[in-house]
Structure formats: structure tokens, C-alpha cells
Amino acid sequence: MMISHNRRKILQASGALAAATSVPLMARAQAAAPRVVVIGAGFAGATLAKYVRMWNPAIQVTLIEPNPTHVSCILSNLVMTGALGMSTITLRYDNLRNKYGVKLVADRAVAIDSVNRIVTTQTGNRIAYDKLVLAPGIDFDAVPGLDTAVLPHAWQAGPQTLALKAQLDAVPAGGTFVMSIPPAPYRCPPGPYERACLLADTLLRRRRAGRVIVLDANNDVVAEPHTFHTAFQTTYAGIVEYHPATVVEAVDWSARRIHTNWGPIRADAANIIPRQKAGKLVAAAGLLGSAPGARWASVNPLSYESTLVPNVHVIGDSQGTGQPKSGHMANAQAKVCADALVRYFAGEAPDPAPVTMTVRPASASARSSVVAAAGSCTSNCAPTATAAAYPGPSGSVPHTRKVPARRGSARSSSCCSWG
Fold it and tell me: What's the burial of 40, exposed, middle or buried (CB within 10 Å: 0-12/13-18/19+)?
């Protein structure tokens, strides 16, 4: 078939145009915005999403969270006592979307394909990522006979917080409230002891007398032992009974009995806090490793990237660096991780020596101060040490972590980074 001169010229021109435009098209494809996907919008996940967008708005951030709001564990003990309402500890995600441009996906992540870098959600949505950050919080071991719908642990704030308040409100005059403390590590080290103080203080203020029996699976008070021993032995003497090295083995609530390694205890109300571990998705993604009894994700503390699965990071309560598990530390870890991600997409290595600093004021032994200290999970839920020291990537080099000054300081921030 003959092709006319004019038609041949048009075809040649179009071919030249295609060749001329193919390079910038390829360049644009290669320069597509980096994709960070975050699973879990608690203090760790929400903070990371915000700071990645703040420090590099060119990075696309998708935040997967099934709940429309976050109900904070911090301050929740004061909801239990009636001092605060649930609205005080309920935080919305509007600013993340409207102010920082975070894409919110109201769904639950159920599977991770780390080879093809895809997250699958409960509704079948498939979300691709370049970097994935898991911040799923904690999961719990089962306790034989324990039904958390009947006896809430309230270590995840929300409906269980109100259910625990109802238990406290129903304690009869002279009644016995039994609460347990799981083996460390667990979320918010001082939290259970603070709760015990608030339980005792509430019974005292309501003139109900009675007892608060504290069953601690640890050999001694884990956080601020001097403060809480003073509270138990002096401020609330005759009300609080503290029993270390006592493990709850089973619950028979139909008989109002808590079975321990020392024998059964009868109770009118109970708050059994089970042993804790990394969120289910962390284990399902193979981030715990094969070591027997592994409960937390193995990560490089310079970036919180998994030591087992590349391009997957774990922050907050599920990480296994040895740092305390608290809102304050989750916030600080999120900023360290966010900084590492921003550096990664810029072709830089992580900061070699960041620090997550935690400072907690000393508590007095006076009753008012002890009750105020019970608001420590009410304030920053930070550990007593001035810095969290833990093994570096090699497992032998001690590190303290500091968010680089050029992007902000973890030390000056609160847990809440929604605003």
C-alpha cells in the first residue's frame, strides 16, 4: 500500500513527538510521590502521619484506622472515678486530614504482602506502599475464665472504661475490689499502681471503706516503687493490700473468685489486666521472629525498621527495643521514625544517635500528691528515668534517642499530636 508524502510526514512527526515525550513521562513516573502507609491511629501512628507530612509534604501518607475517633488511655483513670467524661479523652482525626493532608482510610488492615508491598483491608481494599509503619498497639493473653465483657481490663480505653467505672460505682460498703498487674513489659508502667491509688481514694471519699487488693505478677512495683509503696503503706494504709509475685491463673466470676498461684481470693469487683504482647498484625506479618516466647517486634532503633522484614517499621507499644510502653514514648518514637523516613526518601541514612527523652517530676508522699501522681497516666505516662537507654542495632551498644533539632524535639512534646 502506498503512503502519501503528507501522511508519511505526519507519522514521522508523531513518532518524533512520542520519542520526545517518552523521557519526561518516564521521569515523572520514576519521580512519583513516595507512599507511606500507616496502620493504627493511636499516639504513635497519628503522630508519625502528621510529622511525615509536616517535614515533607511531597510524601503521600495513608492512615488506616477502623475507628472514627481515638479514645485515649491517658486520663482514662479519671473517667473511671467520674472526675472526667469520655468526651475529654476522645480525639478526632479531622486535623490530620484537613490541615496536614493525610489520607484516612476507615477500614481494618488484615494482611501484609511485604514482597509486593501491599496492605489488604477487611473490605478487600489493596493499598500499595513504599514504606509501611505498623502502630497497632497491644494484644492480650487469654486468662482462663476471664470474660472481658463482664470484667473489663480497660487497658484499651473506650466502652471498657465505662464498664470499669460501673464496677467501681457498684462496690458495696466494706466490699473488696481485686485488681491485677501483668508481668512487665506492659503498656504504661505506672498505670496499674495509679489505678490502685485512685480506686482506694474513691472508696475513701465515698466513705465505703473496704479493700483494694493488688495482685502484682512482678516481684516489686515496676515504676516509682518509693512513691507507690508510700501510698500503699501510708496514704492508703488499711485499704490497699499489695501482694507481689502473685499471678492470676484463672477467674471463676460466678463464684466471685480469682484464682492465683497462692490460692483463691474472693472479690465483689475485679479488674484483671492480662499479660500483653504486640498487636495481632505484627505477629501475622512475621515481625516477631522465631525465638520461643517472642512477644514484641524486633526493630532497628535508629529507624524502627524491622530487622526481619525490609521496608516495614514498627512503633509504639508493639516495638521491642526495651523502651517503656507509653503514650509519651510512642509520640517520641513516631518522630524518630518520621525523621528516618524523610531522610530515606531523600537518599540519606537515619540519624545515627537520636534520643527519646522522658522526664517525670518526682512525686511527694502526701495524699494529694499521690492522687495527682495517679494522673501521671493523666499527664505524660512517662517513665521515671531521664532517658530511655536500650540496645542499639547490634544489641550491645547503648543508645539514647533524640529527634534532630532541625525537625523538632521529642522532649518538648505532649503525647497528643493531632492538632
Answer: buried
Q: What is the dihedral of CA 113, 114, 118, 119, to 10 degrees?
A: 70
Q: What is the dihedral of CA 235, 156, 189, 139, to 10 degrees?
A: 140
CA distance 403 to 354: 5
**24-53 tens-digit pLDDT:** 433 333 468 999 999 999 999 999 999 999
Q: Which amino acid is at 414?
A: S
pTM of the model: 0.83
C-alpha cell at 138: 497491644
pLDDT tens, position by position, 59-116: 999 999 999 999 999 999 999 999 999 999 999 999 999 999 999 999 999 999 999 9
Q: How far is CA 210 from CA 95, 169, 266, 311, in A?
A: 45, 13, 13, 53
Instruction: With residue 210 as reference, give the H or E element that holds it.
Output: none
What would the pLDDT profile of 141-151 be if each residue is shown by its tens digit? 999 999 999 99
199 touches 154 (CB < 8 A): no
Sign of CA dihedral 332, 333, 334, 339: positive
